[in-house]
Amino acid sequence: MQTAENVICINLKPLGHGRAYEDFKSVGTPKVHEWGIFMSVLFSKIYQSLQRGSDVVIATIMSKSGSTPRSSGSKMLIYDDGSIDGTIGGGVVEADVIRTALELFTTRDSVLKSYDFKNSTNTDQMDLICGGWMQILIEYVSIDEDNVNIFRMVNNSLQRANPAVLIGKLRSNKKNGAIDRSVKVADSDWSGPLRVTPELHKILEKYTFDHNTASLLLFEDQQYVIESLLPAKTIYLVGAGHVSREIARILNHIDFQIIVIDDRIEFANQERFPEADEVIVCPDYSGVFKESDIDTESYIIIVTRGHRFDKEVLAQALRTKAGYIGMIGSRKKRDTIYQALLAESFNSHDLDRVHCPIGLAIDAETPSEIAVSIVAQLIQYRALRRSNG
């Protein structure tokens, strides 16, 4: 394992650019199974690979600065046939990571690489001039029993919509990779071959695990990898019409879980919404969120077939803890519904929680365009929440 004192640093200046592409050509064009892939899906694929007896290499962005294509914690899986799942941003960096990963299937080692784009000014090499820097852990994961158990626990936790914290200690030998791990699922104790001492646990308590991220920690002359793993945020699409269908199609490529709710079985079904994690047919819109576990990380999008239903659903949404509430409609419709709600038990502070008209103002007209504007606003909202802590 490359230690903190022996990190491989690659400064991708113009002269190095050709070499990276030549190396990639020898690998061939990788088959990408998924581009915008959920973190929970990636860990499911890691576990499935180990279960069927196949080693895997995991590339994780550990740290970054400046402008880079992906954030810390982003992952890509590389298999021994050169195929991949996920992405760390594409371009020559991803090409170099794939080449390195294929070598690790032979060496059974792991490596920490740094990529510096700050000195690349050749405009013919556009993917090298974003001006950032990032450090990527390229980790060989063998099919030994400890790895299978650890990734089984992580997979089960994320599938049950529970968070997990993964910690690994980088070691110098090459046996079965280079990381000893333990995992903490929800409120349970640490489990795994790596002993988390009271002193180390005390340091980990200072970390804020509120979004998917990865970082390196130097503690008592040992280097640790710390990963915060959260299930995808849940979006409740209330209404199963044309706009809702287009929203679901786009959300399928983004890290959200999708629940569709409507009172019409001919609209709310898995055939119309194959991308949805769950489709609920309710008898009517009264008590629409009664069986739903809505918290501050949940999103509610109201796109029913009429003003009356929108008002009925919005009134119930405002009684939840949902972090994001959006409702389709014009300003005139919004004002009419707001006046009715103010006459009931709601106040202006309650209504300030609502995004209406929903979506970014891009003059969208068709259901597809409206869906793009709505999903863009969801991404913007999620990013703002992350940056504001």
Q: Key features?
A:
single chain; 389 residues; alpha/beta; Rossmann fold; 3 domains; six-stranded parallel β-sheet; 10 helices; 16 strands; elongated
SSE layout and pairing:
Layout: E1 8-11, H1 14-27, H2 39-51, E2 56-65, E3 75-78, E4 84-86, H3 91-107, E5 110-116, E6 133-141, H4 145-159, E7 164-170, E8 179-185, H5 198-204, E9 213-219, E10 222-229, E11 233-238, H6 242-251, E12 256-262, E13 278-281, E14 299-302, H7 307-317, E15 324-327, H8 331-342, H9 348-351, E16 354-355, H10 367-387
Parallel strand pairs: 1-5, 11-12, 11-14, 12-13, 14-15, 15-16
Antiparallel strand pairs: 2-3, 2-6, 3-4, 5-6, 7-8, 7-10, 9-10
Helix pairs in contact: 1-3, 2-4, 6-10, 7-8
Number of domains: 3
Shape: elongated
Q: Distance between termini?
A: 33 Å
Q: Mean of the pLDDT scores? A: 83
Mind explaining what this structure looks like?
There is one protein chain. This protein is of the alpha/beta class. Mean pLDDT is 83; it is low at 1-36 and 122-126. The protein is built from ten helices and 16 strands. The strands form three sheets. A six-stranded mixed beta sheet has the order 1-5-6-2-3-4, sandwiched between helices. Helix 1 (14-27) packs across helix 3 (91-107) and helix 7 (307-317) crosses helix 8.
